[in-house]
Amino acid sequence: MIKKVLVANRGEIAVRIIRSCREMDISTVAVYSDADRSALHVLYADEAWHIGPSPSTESYLNIENIIRTAHLSGADAIHPGYGFLSENPDFSARCREEGIIFIGPSPNAISMMGDKITARTTMTEAGVPVVPGTKDKIESEEEALKLIGEIGLPVMIKASAGGGGKGMRLVTSDKDVTTALRGARSEAGTAFGDDSIFIEKYIEAPHHIEFQILADSHGNVIHLFERECSVQRRHQKIIEETPSPILTPERRLQMGEAAIAAAKAVDYQGAGTIEFIVDQDLNYYFLEMNTRLQVEHPITERVVGVDLVKEQIHIANGKPLQLRQEDLKQQGHAIECRVYAEDPDNNFMPAPGKVTHIDIPYGVGVRVDGSIYEGFEIPLYYDPLIAKLIVWGKDRMEALERSRRALQEFKITGVKNNLRFLERILHAKDFVGGNYTTHFVEENKEFLVNEFSCDNHCEDIVIITAFMEYLRKIHKASPKEMTALKNNWKDYSRVRSVFKL
Amino acid sequence: MIKKVLVANRGEIAVRIIRSCREMDISTVAVYSDADRSALHVLYADEAWHIGPSPSTESYLNIENIIRTAHLSGADAIHPGYGFLSENPDFSARCREEGIIFIGPSPNAISMMGDKITARTTMTEAGVPVVPGTKDKIESEEEALKLIGEIGLPVMIKASAGGGGKGMRLVTSDKDVTTALRGARSEAGTAFGDDSIFIEKYIEAPHHIEFQILADSHGNVIHLFERECSVQRRHQKIIEETPSPILTPERRLQMGEAAIAAAKAVDYQGAGTIEFIVDQDLNYYFLEMNTRLQVEHPITERVVGVDLVKEQIHIANGKPLQLRQEDLKQQGHAIECRVYAEDPDNNFMPAPGKVTHIDIPYGVGVRVDGSIYEGFEIPLYYDPLIAKLIVWGKDRMEALERSRRALQEFKITGVKNNLRFLERILHAKDFVGGNYTTHFVEENKEFLVNEFSCDNHCEDIVIITAFMEYLRKIHKASPKEMTALKNNWKDYSRVRSVFKL
Amino acid sequence: MSYEVKLKDRIAKVEVLSHQGDKLLVSVDGKEYALDFVRISKGSYSILHQNKSYNVELIPVNGIRKYDVNTLKHTFEVEIIDAEAKYLANRRKGQEDDHEAVISSPIPGKVVNLFVKEGDTVKAGQTVIVIAAMKMESEFKAPKAGVVRSVKAVEGQNVEARQELVVIEFK
Amino acid sequence: MSYEVKLKDRIAKVEVLSHQGDKLLVSVDGKEYALDFVRISKGSYSILHQNKSYNVELIPVNGIRKYDVNTLKHTFEVEIIDAEAKYLANRRKGQEDDHEAVISSPIPGKVVNLFVKEGDTVKAGQTVIVIAAMKMESEFKAPKAGVVRSVKAVEGQNVEARQELVVIEFK
Asked: Which one of B29, B42, B374 has the shortest CB-CB distance to D46?
């Protein structure tokens, strides 16, 4: 039984893991780089050990230092969180060698899912659908035409040696096939000196939908339903929800079974996520597997009623799953908004700096996971994710309305952040409608960067208040100046007749 | 349809009601007394209107001022919260006369349940069990003996004119009946000049268990299961949980049906609570009905998955209930801890004053409803309830462990409070075991007021830190003094050889 | 260069031995502590001692000598005893009056129960009076055994803050 | 006794007409406001205007003239324009250089995509370069139409904070 866990991570996920450990009466060891001496996970853990300089390659990615710290602190297990070493098969292997429990899957499962081509082959063999197409080079036009016939339009033709969009052609109609093929090959030949191509089914309006699975060491695998993650900007998820507003119960069942088959195919143990790309007709294709906890795991926790970190620890302890597939249900609806320290008005540039003030939303159905506090200096070395707002409602509409209410109350001052951008998303027609694709942010760009208009008078009230505070401070700084000011006010009130409410 | 709600209350419940209104896009009007100009409900509402001086009789209980404010502000409905005017039939009636929707039951339902004798009679007629005994005076020994035979031992004999324990006798054994009867009557005669008595079944180890009900204006009544409220101090609830750890599914079903029958008997509309007293054999007796929202309603919200304030508003709008009894389920377990500004070390005396610092717990399964902020001055005119911690877990053990974790993180500084006392309750063997009665606090008094022992070194660390802060401040106050101090340090380090980590 | 610091009933002698950057060497009642000592924001410190992490919040109480202190698991009241504090403590001691107890309520309320009358003998811990204030009931008990010398409260009536309610003369 | 206050592009003239207790009469651009104006804690005010409730939080930004401001529904940056601010603004104006744009990243990162080379013509809003920093990708666009005068970045390579990456000369 695990008694002391070293959390090989930082930020909100480290804090979140420590919370569950504390509830289980497990001791916790935080590790920190130079930049993180004052980080919340250091303050919150039972122990804190320094593991190196600020750049993560020298600290949070430094396997030697982390293993040494585990031994020195007497930790019997390591939780890798997400990112950093969480999907590094060498780290998982190294923990095993050192007699430390790695709270995650085997090195082999990580490796198989980490390599795109192995993963694709393994999935095909397990009967899990992958995006139709070929990963072998195509060298002749006949071969290409035959394959396009099999896959069906639309397809994307890509140069094997490609990059930067060169040699890429989208084909949506039969009459364009030959022209596109020739164009792509010729462009590829010119640009890269190699005119071989790949052909892949083009998903026009893709949804990113993933399934949470749990697998124990006794061969039991269950899924905890899906998360809809199509609100993305440059492949970075921004808002996730569950259930997905587009899935039917039948399709959910099928995809859940596919997710379980995928996990079984690599003899998976622990918590993992199978990502699918889904088209408008609800055809679904395996994209990849994340062999770790996801940032967005709390929405699953909320609708299924489970603490995923605790489940991970139980599995790592060799216990059989207590949850049975037939008992699991999606209760209501949950939405997660990711709060980034970034500037939506300036290319979404990450915005490290000092947090001067925070207002956190409370009340029914609201959970906030975060890693900042007033006075905290967000370091520039790591991910700018600083908090997550997880909101539950009895149905999607309530979750949406509650998320808006919570975002309105959520304020982080001192560093630029995307809170108002998130609020805009929750008011965008496509999001409210529920049928949005991974193109959502791009398609709604203008709406999303607009500001909410101010109430009547509200600008003036803000101006007045700031001004009064300024006068107050001047007064404190120099009483003399203020006395003059006060007399002036008296003059005014004399002239204008005294006002009474 | 209600568009603007006046919340005729203050504190956490006013804030909580405004939150749900905001999610429903309903405007909110706060009312405040002199003492509450800076209270959170005033800051949080869309509008705020002054209704009178600090004593609640002149403000929150002033029907005229509240009705006038509703008209002036254009509110079409009033939510009374709990306490204050919430169970005042005249207020409910007055709202009706004035064409304002009262979010609560009819004056008649309030009156019938407000009068103990009418309520008892009505319940008996509706087939809801009440505590066996008589409310009519008994004047002869024969009559008394006959009744005791019917009720069964133990019974409590009480003087009709009684008070202060005089003329009271607990009878647990047949052989004592006659002696006790005569003793009680003689004592009563001497003390009050009236030797008539009452006889009531004595519940030895009583549990206080209540059922939440919802009733719409179309005759639909459902119950949302029970809340176990036996942790009390001087009839003041401290911790509530749901499900009750002692109820069986069969008994839960019966009591739920009894609760529905009770509500139907008074043609109830809105949210209400039927309180039962339950003995160790799970015999249950109607105690009273609270014709309003309860302080502890959030634990029901959490396990049933419903926003009770929104349901109240839907019912007030004349909508039929969307929830059906057969769909309702208790999901997991929830515990509420009531945070009072009171001093457990000094007779639990309420402790008004200025809040200087707050640390609020976060993370999975944690909800905090409150009405204080840093810098807020808790007024001495009202209830000392300042916050509620509502924690959910997949089962009772998880809810308990998570509540402990959350309470550990919860800090309110500047005013005395019962946070540590609450934490002690969650460690008390009787509470952990789950079979505790309304005598729990009294029986565990010594355990509950003890302190948690400090970790090794932790006192010393606290002493050092306070001392260093003191030196820092002295230094800021008088640089000269500190320079001398610094030199002193140098001397010491020279003598003792420089220390390096 | 050592000070006394009071925590609960304990008075500890504290002495800073060296302080360079975040490295602090200090002794408490002769026991030495080598700490990584960092001020993380106003009134908030992170202390690592042999890799144990302590997060200590200090909230000043009237001035710079007294603090309400929070750690993750505990809360304390701490007082630095400087010359002024010593003087005040000595003066208080001189005035202490230990032959009677005056029971009063710190805030206004209403007498719910009054269990004694003048001349009654009371045991230590016996409930003397119950006051309701801010909707809560508080029981006031006799701190030691004694005799009720005077009763100024009436059941059912309101009382002011700090009003004398019951005086108990100790035996 | 009037000041100018800047909020977004607007510069408003503010004048206190009277202030007695919590009652404040003030004009903004000639419009009068009668307010119930209460400071509730450090940097936090409650304002009632015709019974509308405004809760305004002010977080000072370097000194006393600039504030980040939160209301329940909005956030703003506000600046009080006093003599010093006017002087600074005038000086800035003189230095302003509007015939070219220098694209740089405020924090260190890595060039993910570089879409232009020296001599390329760019349209207003066209993405010029994509930088990854703190694991996030940011697109930098041409503010106006122009010609790329110089490129100092290389795809796949790291860049320093404020390093000149691409210079666009406006037409």
From this structure: B42
